[in-house]
Amino acid sequence: MKRYDVIVIGAGLAGLQCARLLASQGAHVLLADRKLSLAEAVHTTGIFVRRTLEDFDFPQNCLGPPVRHVTLYSPGWRALKLESPHDEFRVGRMSKLYLHYLDECIRAGVEWAPATRYAGSEKAGADTLVRLETEGTRWAARARFLVGGDGANSRVARDLELDSNREWIVGVEEVFTGVPLDGHPRFHCFLDPVLAPGYLAWIVHDGEETHIGVGGYAKQFDPLRALEIFRLSVSGSIVDLSHAQSIERRGGRIPVGGVLRRIACERGLLIGDAAGAVSPLTAGGLDPCMRLSHLAARVIVDYLGSGDAASLAPYSGDAFRTRFTSRLWMRRLIAKLKQPAVLEMGCAILRLPLVNSLARHVFFGRGSFPDMQQADLKTRASLAA
Fold first, then answer.
1. In the Cβ-directed half-sphere of 168, how many Cα atoms lie within 13 Å?
2. Angle between the 356-364 and 340-350 helix axes, to the nearest 10 degrees?
3. For the segment 206-233, what is each residue's pLDDT rounded down to a tens digit?
4. Which residues contact 332 (CB under 8 A, 6 or more apart)?
5. Directed axis angle between helix 13-24 and helix 94-108, to 10°?
6. Would you say 121 and 9 are in contact if contact means Cβ atoms under 8 Å apart?
């Protein structure tokens, strides 16, 4: 039976980032994912915000053209147009990006186990015994540390007795090419408590790809039916889909309860959606995913080197949740807003000059997730004191 320093379950952006950083620092890493190819079954729209693009190095061929313009629509389709002086968003070509990071993982020495399902784990002396299944064949490996990057409904979280997500929305979108761009690349956001209860419907059109989607609380709508209605309603009025080619449909759960409190123990930790590392308000998860994975790799290397559980102290959800207090309250408010008239009035208020800055802050603000390096240093300083 093979033994690894770290086994990472899930090769989404969080898992790839964490595995790559660990291997580059000398750790013996196994990365497992149930998909045969990371180019298939992508779940995220892949919108990267300015702060992420500035702080992390992404290959340019894996990003779409920059987007500076946002239009927010009320339930009655009254538009509030916003423009930033900066390149605020770029839509990742996620299949290309995943494959790029996987190649970097393998170059760094990560062992790759595709088409491999996580079947469970348990403590085995000082290690964790990880049970896996590859194309019907069951096998096991030992790990000094286990990392769960296996999504919002993480099985690793349950086996490590860490916290699990309890609140999420469901999103589904269709990706098109061949849609003519009238004007600037634009992010269209639609507030509609019927089509997208508790969240929004969206069109992201950067001139190369057009993403049309809806999201909301699963018990309050039929996502596929809502997507069909929304697509028909915007075709011809917002975007011209007459010659468009549908190339992909995506969907999945998005946790919106904020970073979980207990996301690490002496046997392992959680990253990405498994840790709830998603903005409760905007449901944006790529920036938190990159930053949390960076911190995870750092504390894991420290822990493997020292064996001291105190090395894991900086990796605590409690340290991050205070940053999201206002967003969590706004999430609770949005979940209760089911009357179009109320949302219409709220959108009318946002159009007032004195309040307009709030809308700009939501879309163009730079405080999506705490700075991991500063959080780590503060925690270490408090422990030393």
1. 22
2. 100
3. 999 999 999 999 999 999 999 999 999 9
4. none
5. 20
6. no
Nearest to 7 by CA among 135, 124, 108, 156: 156
Confirm if 98 and 15 have CB atoms less than 8 A apart: no
The full set of domains in the chain, from first to last, is 3-384 (3.50.50.60)
Among 216, 208, 218, 219, residue whose Cα is nearest residue 245? 208
Q: Which residue has the tokens 């997507």?
A: 227
Residue 279 DSSP class: -
Question: Hey, what amino acid is at 237?
Answer: S
The pLDDT, as a whole number, for residue 336 is 74
CA atoms within 13 A on the CB side of 86: 12
Contact 174, 248 (CB under 8 A): yes
pTM: 0.91
10 Å CB burial of residue 328 (0-12, 13-18, 19+) is middle
Is the distance from CB of 127 to CB of 133 less than 8 angstroms? no
Q: How far is CA 360 from CA 265, 357, 364, in A?
A: 39, 5, 6
